[in-house]
Amino acid sequence: MVMPETTGDPVLDTMPRATGMVGSATSSAPPDERAAAVIRIENLDAYYSAFRAVKDVNLAFEARKITALIGPSGCGKSTLLRTINRMNDLVPGARVDGSVLYHGVDLYSKDVDPVEVRRRIGMVFQKANPFPKSIYDNVAFGPRINGYKGNMDELVESSLHRAALWDDVKDKLKQSGLALSGGQQQRLCIARAIATNPDVILMDEPCSALDPRATLQIEELMFELKETYTIVIVTHNMQQAARASDHTVFLSMAEDRAGYVVEEGPTLGIFTNPKSRLTEDYVSGRFG
Amino acid sequence: MSSIGSSATATAASVRAGLTGARRHDAWGLVFEALLLASLLLSLAILFVLVADVLAKAAPVFADRGAGFLTSPLSSNPAKAGIVQGLVGTAILAAIVAGLAFPFGLATAIYLEEYAADTKLTRFIQVNVRNLAGVPSVVYGLLGLSVFVAFMDTVDGTGSGRNVVAGGITLAVLVLPIVIITSIEALRAVPNAIREAGYGVGASRWEVTRQLVLPSAAPGILTGTVLALSRALGETAPLLLAGAVLGSFSGLSLSSLFTGSYTALPVIVYDWSRKPQDAFRADAAAAIVVLLLITLAANVIAVLLRNRYERAW
Amino acid sequence: MAHAAPVLPAGMSLHGSARRRRRESVVRGLFLAASLATILISVFIVAAVLFEAVGFLAQIDLGKLVGIGWFPRRGIFDVATIVLGTLIVTAIAMVIATPIGLASAIYLSEYATPRFRRSVKPILEVLAGIPSVVLGFFALTLLTPALIKPLFADANSFNLAAAGIGVGILSIPLVASVAEDAMRAVPQSLREASYGLGARRITTSLRVVFPAAVSGIVAALILATSRAIGETMVVAVAAGAPQARTINPLDPGGTMTSAMVTLATGSDQVTGNSAAFQSLFFVGLLLFLVTLALNVVGDAFVRRARQRY
C-alpha cells in the first residue's frame, strides 16, 4: 500500500517522516521487528490497592523508536509508563499482575532489584525537577551513586552534549540547576537521565509545562536521542504525538474506569486510518 | 413610569446618607478592634515588665561583683554565692541532651516519614510520640528517678545514681518528642519531586534520603533541635526529682561526673528564690538574667542556622 | 538476525549489588530500632509509675487518703488538698489565658497586617520560651507584693492566686498560637462571602470565622488546660508547699505537681519504700492519667479542625 504524499491534514503534512513503516496501519509487525522489541508488556494489570487502573495491556516497544501513549485524562497512561521502570513501587498499595519483559527479563520477578531497573530505564517527569545542586552535580548524581569510576567530567560533558544543553551551560557548570529556564531545566533532566547510560528513556508529558518554543526544542532533541535510545512518551498533545513519534498507542477508559489499549500501530496509520471508531473520534478531537 | 424618575432622585440622597452615615455606626467595630489589640499588647507588656523587673533586681549584683558572679561557687552567704557550678552542670546537660535526643529523634523521624508503611505499628508509634510530647515534665522526673538513677546506681557501684548523666538522660527523653515532631515537619516540607527524581536515576531509599532529602530538610531539623535544647536547659522539675542538689556543695570535676553531686542553672534559681534573705532574691534575679541570655542565645542561633542553610539553591 | 532471542546485552544484570541491599536493610533496621525506643520510653514511664503507686496504695490504709491536708511525712495524704490546689491554679490560669489568648488570636488572624504578624509572633514565642521557674520568681517577687497584696491585704506571701496568674501568663502563647492557626485555616472564601453580604469585620470574625474554627479553638483550650495542670515550678516557687486543705486562693498551698517537687526535695530526702516516697508516684499516676486524657481529647479536636479544610 502506498500512502499519498500529502494527506490534507495540516498537522500530519508538516510532520517529518518519523517512521519507515509507511502504509501499514495494522498492529502486527513482521517477525524481525518483534524480535527487536526492547520492552514487551504481557497481560499487564496495574492496581492501586483495590482499584484497577490499567487492564489487559499487551504491547511491544521497538528499539530506537519513539512510541507515544495517548488518550484522554485518567485512562492510565502515566500509570502504565511508571510500571515500566517500577516507579509505581513507591506508591503504597500499588501492585502489578502480568509481566514487563526487558530484554526478555521479567522486571517484576523476585530477584530483580528495582534500583537497577531505574538505572537502565531512565525517566523524565512532567515538571522539570532538577536537584537543588549545581548543574554538574545534577548530571553526575546518577553515575556517582551507581559507582561510576571513570572520568566524570567527560561523562557530564557528553551527557550535556547529547541533551543539547552543553553550549548553554558550559561556562556555568557550578551554578545551580534551578537557575535555568524551564526548557533548559527539562533538558538538564534529560542529561541527568542519560548520564546513567540507559537504553530506554521514559517521558511523562515532558513538555506540558513548557512554552511552544521550548517544546519544539525538546521534540527536536527527541529525534536526535532516538538514534541511541528507545523512547516512550506519554503526551496529552495529539499534535505532538503525530509530529514526533514513530508508533502510537491509544488508551481509553473502560466502564469500570480501568484503562485499556484501544488501538496501537504506526503513527501515520493511527492518525490517518484508524481502525477503531473510538480512536477516530479521539484523534479528530470529538472528545478528550 | 414617572414614579421612577422621582424615586430615583430621592434614592440618590438616601443612598448617600446611608453610605456616609455608616461610619458612625462602626464605633463598636473600632472599640472591638482596640480591645483585641490591647489584649495582644498586654501579653507583650507583661513580657516587658517581667524582663525589666528582673534586670532591675539583678543590677546591683552585677554592679557589685561583675563577672565574679559567674565564677564563684554556691555558698550560704548570698554576697559570695555564684553560679559557676550551675553553668558547668547546664553545659554538661546540654551536651548529653544534644548527644542523645538529636540522633534518636532524627532517626525516628526519618523512619516514620521516609521508610515506614502505613501500618498499625507505624500509627501506634506516631500516636505514642504525640502523647509523650504532652506528658508533664515532672512525670519525666519520676522516670528519671526510678529508672535512670537506679540504672546509674547499679552501673557505678560506689557513688550515688543521682548524677549528672542520669539527669541528662532524663532531659533528653523529655525533649525527644519535640525533636521528632519538628524533624518530621521539616522532612515533610521537602517537595516530593526531588525524591522522585532521585529514584528515577536509580538511587536507593537511603541514598535519596541522605543525599537529597536531608540536605534540604537540614535547616528545619537543626532549628527544631536547638529549640528543643533551649527548652531542656530551662527545665527544673525533672532535675529536682532526678537528684540535682540544692544548697551548696563542693566543686564539680570531670571525675565526679558519675558519682558526684551536680546542679544546673534553673535549679539554682529555684533554690535561691525560696530563701528568706532578700540578698538571695537579688542573686536569683541575676541567675535568671544569665539563664534568659542563654535561652535567648539558643533561639537566635536557631534562627541564624535556619537562615544560613536556606541558601537560594 | 530475524529470530535472535532477546537477551540482555553482555554483562548486564538486573540483580543489583548485594552490598548496597545489605546497607539498605541495616539502615532501615537502625531507624526502626530508634522508633521502637520511643515505645519503650512510654512503657517505662507507665511501669515505673504504676509499680510504686500500687505499692503505695497497698501499703497505706485507704482512709489515710482523706485528712486535714497533704502532709506525707506525717503519713497524712489528703488527696483532695492537692487536687483542689490544681483546680484553683488551673482555673485562675485559664481565666487569664482564655480571653487574652483568644483575643490576641483573633487580632492576629483577622486584623493584623502580615508585617505586624511577622514582628509580633516571634515576641509571643519568646514569652512561650521563658523557663517556668522564672515565671515563678516573677509571681513571687512582683505579682504578690505589687498586685495581690495591695488588692487583698490578708493574702499570704505565698499564695495560689499569684501562681495561677503566672501559669496563665505562660499559657497565653499556647492558646493564641493554636487558636490563630485554626482561624487562619478557615478558607478566605467564607470571609469573602460574609463581606460580600455587607457584614463588617467584627461580625465576620465573631459570627463566621470563629464558629468555623471552633474545633481548633476548643483544642487550644484543652491543650492549654492540660499544660496548666502539668505546670510545676511556678507553683513550687510562688505558692509555697501543700499544707492544710483550703479553697482560698490567697492561702499558700500546692498542686499535684508541686507536691511532687516538695516531696522530692525536702531536707530529709525520702527514699526507698516509705509511704511518703511512694506517694510521689501515686500523685504522678493521677497527674499522668489526667493529662493523658486531656491530650488525647485535645489532639482529636486538632485533627478534626485540620480535616475540615
Q: How would you characterize the overall build of this protein?
A:
The complex is a heterotrimer of chains A (288), B (313) and C (309). Chain A is α/β, with parallel strands linked by helices and 288 residues long. Chain A has helices spanning 10-14, 31-35, 77-84, 114-120, 135-145, 152-162, 166-169, 182-194, 212-226, 238-244, 267-272, 277-283; strands at 37-48, 51-62, 66-70, 94-102, 105-106, 121-124, 200-204, 230-234, 247-253, 259-266. The longest helix of chain A has 15 residues, at 212-226. Chain B has 313 residues and is an all-alpha fold. Chain B has 12 helices and no strands. In chain B, α6 crosses α7 (164-188) and α8 (192-200) packs antiparallel against α9 (205-233). Helices cover 72% and strands 1% of the residues of chain C. Chain C has helices at 18-59, 79-111, 114-128, 132-151, 160-184, 188-196, 201-212, 214-230, 233-238, 256-265, 275-307, and strands at 70-71, 76-77. In chain C, α6 (188-196) packs antiparallel against α7 (201-212). Chains B and C meet through α2, α4, α5, α6 and α7 of B and α1, α2, α3, α4 and α5 of C.
Question: What labels describe this entry?
Answer:
heterotrimer; B: 313 residues; mainly alpha; 0% strand; C: 309 residues; two-stranded antiparallel ribbon; 11 helices; 2 strands; 1% strand; disordered N terminus
Order of helices and strands of chain B: HHHHHHHHHHHH
Mind describing the biggest β-sheet of chain B? Answer: none
Rg calculated over all Cα atoms of chain C: 27 Å
Percent helix of chain C, as a range, is: over 70%
Q: Which strand-content bin applies to the residues of chain B?
A: under 5%
Percent of residues in β-strands of chain C = under 5%
Shape of chain B: flat
Order of helices and strands of chain C: HEEHHHHHHHHHH
Side-by-side strand order of the widest sheet of chain C: 1-2
Poorly predicted runs of chain C are 1-7
Categorize the overall geometry of chain C.
flat
Mean pLDDT of chain C: 85
Given the helix and strand composition of chain B, which structural class is it? mainly alpha
The chain pair with the largest interface is: B-C, 81 and 83 residues
